[in-house]
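ok here's Multidrug ABC transporter ATP-binding protein, seq below lol
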Amino acid sequence: MFSRDKWSEIIEALSSNWFRTLLTAFGVMWGIFILVILLAAGKGLENGVKKGFGGIATNTMFMWTQTPSKPYKGLPKGRNYNFKTGDVEALRENVPGLRFISPRNQLGGFGGNNNVVRGLQTGAFNVYGDYPEIIQQEPMDVTAGRFINYLDIEEKRKVAIIGEGVRRELYEKDEEVLGTYLKINGVNFMVIGTYKKKGGGGGNAEEAQKEIYVPFTAFSQAFNMGDTVGWMAITANDENSITSLKSRILDLIKSRHSIHPEDDRAVGNFDLYEEFNKINGLFVALKAVAYFVGILVLLSGIIGISNIMLIVVKERTNEIGVRRALGATPWSIRGQILMESIFLTIISGMAGIIFATGIIAAVNYALSGMDTSEMMFANPSVDLGVVLTALVILVCSGLLAGLIPAQNAIKIKPVDALRTE
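and the structure came out like this:
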């Protein structure tokens, strides 16, 4: 029940020496401020790193061919082999739990020769032969026109979707792009769309906008690839992790290409899900460090409050003696001291939270006016759960800070307290 007299007494006790109370409260305020700022900074770093993935389906692995390191079934080590389109169907039929299997072929690459011509303009770009599912695995915003569809695949249409970086290099600023033609390695493709990759596309943000996508079938026909597949992007469904399915995928590919079952070097692969989990583990560790450091700093403030409450109890020995003589119970004395301790802790802690929130808002405002596409830091923030956790820590800290002084207070005998000068 609310007691006006009790709260007036609490405020009067804490304001009797306001400078001492202010210095004591600063320790708690600083501790909770450090805790919130560290958590927000960790979240900002996490957001920046995840933004760099550009929305890529993280439950994905990439697979490509390498040379076998062991002879098998009369075939020598060090030989070359290629994936085939039949491998894709075999994976779909024999490995349940896969959502997307995207065979891919590629021209160009870093340091490649100029492979794309439009009029007098030339450029060296990555050109991918893909299926429509790739947009689900490497999300991008189609800024004009459309992406590849299955009619393009079936009819082997020579159409292309170009990145905004390709557009800037091969076209004038306001020039119409859709319906124009590019010559890729001497073969004409009509541009039907433009895209912009989200984030950095998992790599260099600028290079991610300088890619060209064409239908897989048209790519194979135009560049004499036959049924060869350069590499694959394989995504598991939400009920399975690609890491748990990886061994079955690799075993099937090895059996289809007469590769020794224990030859782990013959099939190259990159497990994005596994790497993503490592990154998530890093951020969990950073959060734990933030709580550890913040609570240690907060603990120093709590010790200060406990000390000041011991002094307050000492100064109010006569008062406590009178109250005990008039029939006050030990619980009422203990409750009074604990209430003062909790009140001081929560008020100073909330001041720290408000101050930290203001700093975070200022940082977000500054970042909103900057180009953060190349930054590994974005939207530092704390959620409601962190604030509630901080409040729980404050209440527990207040109880801890007032516990020893409260116990000392109820140990004072009324007669001894009344004799104290």
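fwiw The longest helix spans residues 272-315. kinda neat tbh
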